[in-house]
Specification:
Layout: H1 9-12, H2 19-35, H3 40-57, H4 67-79, H5 84-103, H6 130-138, H7 146-162, H8 166-170, H9 177-183, E1 185-189, E2 195-199, H10 202-215, H11 237-250, H12 259-274, H13 277-284, H14 289-310, H15 319-327
Antiparallel strand pairs: 1-2
Helix pairs in contact: 2-3, 3-5, 7-10, 7-12, 12-14, 13-14
Length: 341
Amino acid sequence: MPAARRPAPSKQYAAPSHPDNVAALQAYLDFLTYERRQSSHTLSSYRRDLARLLAAAGEAPFARLDALAIRRQVALLHGQGLSGRSLARLLSAWRGFFHWRQLRGEATANPCVGIKAPKREKRLPDALSVDETRGLLRHAPDEDDARLACRDQAMFELFYSSGLRLAELAGLNLDALEPLLREGEVEVLGKRSKTRLVPVGRVAQEALSEWKTLRGSLAAPEETALFVSRLGTRISMRMIQKRLARYALLAGARVRVHPHMLRHSFASHLLQSSGDLRAVQDMLGHASIASTQVYTHLDFQRLSQVYDQAHPRAHRHTAASDAEREEKPESLPQSKSGKAD
């Protein structure tokens, strides 16, 4: 795989900066690229977050930044509308950078240690119900080119069958197809270049087998990608997103469907059926069980909705029901004299 082209520092960081700061950030990005082997998507996030650190330092060296300066910058960014989630990620990137400088003997302290981002609202991942997913995957939109429809069906079945990330699916090569069809498993390259083996269901295997018969008539000579575009080259992640969104729209989906939603649906449905959190963690490729535990909350949320709808004494108070009670007050108990007690 060819090495990623390094952007020129002047184009990366437009604001006036101390030259040593620019060199330090570039060295850290090289460390993340070649030693930590971070993905291009992760590197883009680091580059954006570290550019904010460079702007915060201005023309002063990083050694001049202390905890107070970091707190002020976080408060400033929060005031400009940056969410708690984004600030938490930003602080993590800054903290990692200063820790790296400490290990290299270039800093005596980490000014980001102990600084926390503002509390953020906890959001559950968006997932489709089993019926919604089934309806989506059953729908085959009209296509002038049947090969594209076949390819899309194979991609989306594989998404849901194996819980792949978008980059993992787009990065699959043709040499993965034969083992997949033969063994019902596929090896994918995940975050931090870690590989994992995930199972592939029968329906996805059938869709991929059909795609195998048509791929050769669409792919360019010597193209190694499993999934290719109309031009015969590896399909881009952005195009996969667009195709799925169109697919869902034509299928009458209630929400905008994105590739990660199929991954969330895979995890939620598998956990509902098996209850095996560790197995789901392994299949998703999560480094921490905490990342997988969010699906237990999603499962409970669905159970709560079913309970509210089905149990005769489960109806919860709402503003509408409160208003209705105000319009129809309950009669007060009456005394023998006919007056209210």
